[in-house]
UniProtKB/TrEMBL annotation:
MF GO annotations: GDP-mannose 4,6-dehydratase activity; NADP+ binding
Protein name, entry field: GDP-mannose 4,6-dehydratase
NCBIfam families: gmd
Recorded catalytic activity of this chain's protein: GDP-alpha-D-mannose = GDP-4-dehydro-alpha-D-rhamnose + H2O
Species this chain originates from: Reichenbachiella faecimaris
Binding, NADP(+): 209
Keyword RNA-binding: no
Amino acid sequence: MKKALITGITGQDGAYLAEHLLSIGYKVYGSYRRTSSENFWRIEDLDIQNNPNLELIEMDLTDMGNIIRLISKYEFDEIYNLAAQSFVGVSFEKPTTTGLITGLGVTNLLEGIRTVNPKIKFYQASTSEMFGEVQEIPQKETTPFYPRSPYGVAKLYGHWITVNYRESFDIFGSSGILFNHESPLRGKEFVTRKITDAVAKIHLGKQSHIELGNMDAKRDWGFAKEYVIGMYKMLQAEKPDAFVLSTGRTETVRDFVTMSFKCVGIDIEWKGNNESEIGINAKTGDLLVKVNPKFYRPAEVDLLIGDCSKATEVLGWEPMTTLEELSKIMVEKDIERNKNGWSF
Ligand code: NDP
Ligand code: GDR
């Protein structure tokens, strides 16, 4: 039985990856950080919390001694590093913390592998945020990086240190350069889930409207459940490498709002622009969306669109779910949750 460690098991991708690895016969160790209250709602939602092959262990990414002891104790075959301070907006307010966890945390894990067992395969959760300011359309593995946030900069460090340990110490370290991927397990601070949760609440009469930031930002959004399979495939490939996972389609935040309201039968009409833009119900004239500049970022990534042909060719991976289908899955789940008074 193969043994995998997933750091960040309490996050969106950690939960889906655990579900996938368990389904193909892995023993999965999910690491989480010590907090005053437990945060396992995602693995509960996927109903894997009582799976005998899932073991939850406490691990602090910023503590190398702790990491070395755990790697020695459990003898993992594969480590998937998904833990991070992952919210771009917050990284402008907490750049040092973001650097320590999202950046240096990667070195701590790689040092653990180098020290205990260099044969352990390592997956690093890299990101399209490393592309940042547009250098090329679409973005692929060879596109130059130009990060636009402390998060993007920290991830770029994690990306290159993985390459460096591969070249210096022959460690099987691969990076998945994943474009935005969403699901009903997405945290509500991220824009898609913020939108689908608000649409559900507006539909149920629990909220009047939603306030958002930059409506013109364009993202390449896919379905998280499919992206974690790409992570697994990267560690089964013949050799370690970097791979883009994306859909090849980009839409604005505004488009995603329009799409999500359509799921509950509401057509939205857009008026004004920038800070004065609003979205109203085309039938009733009710205000549904308002721009609030407090959600703007000090520096923005305007346009992301990925080319995943290398992953398709080498790994046989490709995205399946359209953005319309994804927004429907998310809105329907949020309606169900809001009806049940569920707050995550
Ligand atoms: P989430 O924000 O849902 O999950 C992040 C995980 O990291 C959580 O389990 C969180 O724990 C954990 N974490 C945060 N801070 C620490 C810390 N100090 N020590 C240990 N663990 C910590 O992210 P996703 O699941 O969406 O993303 C997974 C990874 O992939 C992240 O590294 C992210 O940056 C990256 N990524 C994500 C993309 C996406 O579109 N989703 C795209 C590209 C890359 P807790 O629950 O306690 O907060
Ligand atoms: P992103 O995702 O920054 O791309 O990072 P997020 O959903 O936070 O933002 C996407 C775009 O929407 C704009 N936006 C808003 N964003 C938020 N969160 N809230 C708002 O109200 C709002 N209004 C407009 C943002 O400005 C941005 O342009 C995600 C994270 O999962 C990262 O960890 C990951 O690396 C990248 O995706 C790929």
